[in-house]
Design a protein that fits this description.
single chain, 287 residues, mainly alpha, two-stranded antiparallel sheet, 10 helices, 73% helix, rod-shaped, disordered C terminus
């Protein structure tokens, strides 16, 4: 999901830059239009206040939320990379341990019936993630060493079998994985934290973007810059239906505001997150 989330962040960055660019480039024009609009209602001797600064400050505020979102995205991407590094280091010992369990299960299935195989916890599918795999190996090892578990075969190999030798082999594989597994779990938690912060930063950006962009759109219209207002208006909806509803669920764009709605307004592009896969999903499983 990393790449898809990165795309979603970059989409928001593009929308932000469009709005901020319009406000910055057209700032003097907007200020002049607002002056003409408000001058007739000035009291005698009253002068127009600074009308450009609020637009500049709103633009800077929006940029600050954009930058916070980008930073959170970069931190999340870095956390994915760090987790992948440990995952690569784990690949060889993890594969060896998984192979030992599968080999042991095949051996035991040849020696004993299903009840005996089940008593050794070898009747389950081998775990695909490192943390549950190690735990599964520990349970099998302990069952093999349990003095109450009789390992007597009446099939291909007659007589009792020594489970300690098998348990020792599993133990060596487990101990080799422990330090790597500890790093994997730690970095998985770091990724989870980074993902939460990124989600929060994106959600906060959406809320603030909608508020500030709607305010600027209204300001542009008041200043007589209808064409400029029409340019930035669709950006609110391009965050997706969920983004707009989450911010102001009771507010519907209808009536006079719906007049002049473009096709882009009627068919908003959705950027709703899709289910994750790959490293981030693995991190969740390992946590």
């Amino acid at each position: 999901m990393g790449k898809k989330l990165k795309t979603m962040v970059m989409k928001r960055v593009g929308l932000c830059d469009l709005v901020v660019g319009a406000a910055t480039v057209q700032g003097p024009v907007i200020e002049g239009g607002l002056g003409e609009y408000l001058s007739p209602v000035l009291a005698e001797g009253q002068e127009l206040p600074d009308l450009a600064t609020p637009i500049t400050l709103y633009s800077r505020k929006l940029v600050s939320y954009r930058d916070a979102m980008v930073k959170a995205d970069e931190q999340q991407q870095a956390a994915v990379s760090r987790l992948d590094e440990v995952r690569k280091d784990l690949a060889v010992p993890e594969g060896r341990l998984r192979g030992d369990i599968l080999s042991l299960r095949a051996t035991c299935q040849g020696l004993w019936d299903e009840d005996k195989v089940s008593s050794l916890s070898l009747d389950f599918n081998v775990a695909q993630e490192p943390k549950p795999l190690v735990r599964q190996a520990e349970i099998i090892r302990d069952r093999l060493r349990d003095p109450e578990v009789e390992l007597v075969s009446d099939r291909w190999v007659k007589g009792p079998q020594d489970g300690n030798e098998w348990a020792d082999e599993l133990d060596r594989e487990i101990e080799e994985m422990r330090p790597l597994l500890a790093r994997y779990i730690e970095r998985s938690k770091q990724l989870d934290t980074a993902q939460v912060r990124k989600d929060q930063a994106m959600e906060e950006f959406d809320v603030q973007f909608i508020r500030i962009t709607r305010l600027l759109e209204t300001t542009f219209r008041v200043a007589g810059e209808t064409e400029l207002a029409d340019r930035i208006r669709p950006t609110v909806r391009q965050l997706g239906r969920d983004g707009g509803q989450r911010e102001e669920p009771a507010e519907a764009e209808s009536g006079s505001e719906s007049e002049g709605t473009s096709d882009a307004d009627a068919e908003p592009e959705s950027v709703t997150p899709e289910p994750e896969s790959g490293s981030e999903q693995s991190a969740t499983s390992a946590a």
